[in-house]
Automatic annotation (TrEMBL):
<feature type="domain" description="CENP-V/GFA">
    <location>
        <begin position="27"/>
        <end position="149"/>
    </location>
</feature>
<dbReference type="InterPro" id="IPR052355">
    <property type="entry name" value="CENP-V-like"/>
</dbReference>
<keyword id="KW-0479">Metal-binding</keyword>
<dbReference type="GO" id="GO:0046872">
    <property type="term" value="F:metal ion binding"/>
</dbReference>
<protein>
    <recommendedName>
        <fullName>CENP-V/GFA domain-containing protein</fullName>
    </recommendedName>
</protein>
<keyword id="KW-0862">Zinc</keyword>
<dbReference type="Pfam" id="PF04828">
    <property type="entry name" value="GFA"/>
</dbReference>
<dbReference type="GO" id="GO:0016846">
    <property type="term" value="F:carbon-sulfur lyase activity"/>
</dbReference>
<dbReference type="InterPro" id="IPR006913">
    <property type="entry name" value="CENP-V/GFA"/>
</dbReference>
<comment type="similarity">
    <text>Belongs to the Gfa family.</text>
</comment>
<dbReference type="InterPro" id="IPR011057">
    <property type="entry name" value="Mss4-like_sf"/>
</dbReference>
Length: 149
């Protein structure tokens, strides 16, 4: 078994969805200042052998150090404010397909989602660096070539 957690490349990310049949785990996440908090249920859990997070080389992920998991919207429950709040800043660039969200107070890079119909609709890319109690060094990582998308 290949246990090298750094080298795998992948073209399409795995999307977590609500599943009654497989194991899941709930995570608490927040920006640095706590203004934006949410819980997310991941199936499989982050430390499952089937699970991995995505490092992307696009211009914004490279700058912000995103480590992403992709989840269906229904896996996420916002606890303080939603993304439509003016406490959450929005940012788009380039082809304008993807909107990024960050905290207006502390600047934490929270998540991103496609705003183009039919392109990863109903899915969010969550930055697992916002998750509490997760050892980032123990996660399997895969690289995607977002720069060429
Ligand atoms: Zn904040």
């Amino acid at each position: 078994m290949n246990l090298d957690r750094r080298t795998a490349n992948v073209q399409y990310p795995m999307v977590h969805s609500m599943s009654a049949s497989s194991p899941s785990q709930s995570y608490q996440a927040s920006c640095h200042c706590g203004l934006i908090r949410y819980t997310v249920v991941l199936s499989p859990p982050l430390h499952d052998m089937q699970s991995w997070v995505v490092e992307c080389n696009c211009s914004i992920c490279a700058r912000n150090g995103y480590l992403n998991v992709y989840v269906q919207n229904q896996c996420i429950q916002f606890q303080t404010v939603g993304l439509d709040s003016n406490l959450v800043e929005k940012y788009r660039f380039g082809k304008q397909r993807v909107q990024h969200y960050f905290c207006s107070r502390c600047g934490s890079s929270l998540m991103a989602e496609s705003i183009e119909p039919g392109f990863y609709e109903g899915v969010k890319a969550l930055n697992v660096r916002m998750f509490q109690g997760v050892d980032l060094n123990n996660l399997q990582r895969r690289q995607i070539d977002g720069r060429s998308l």
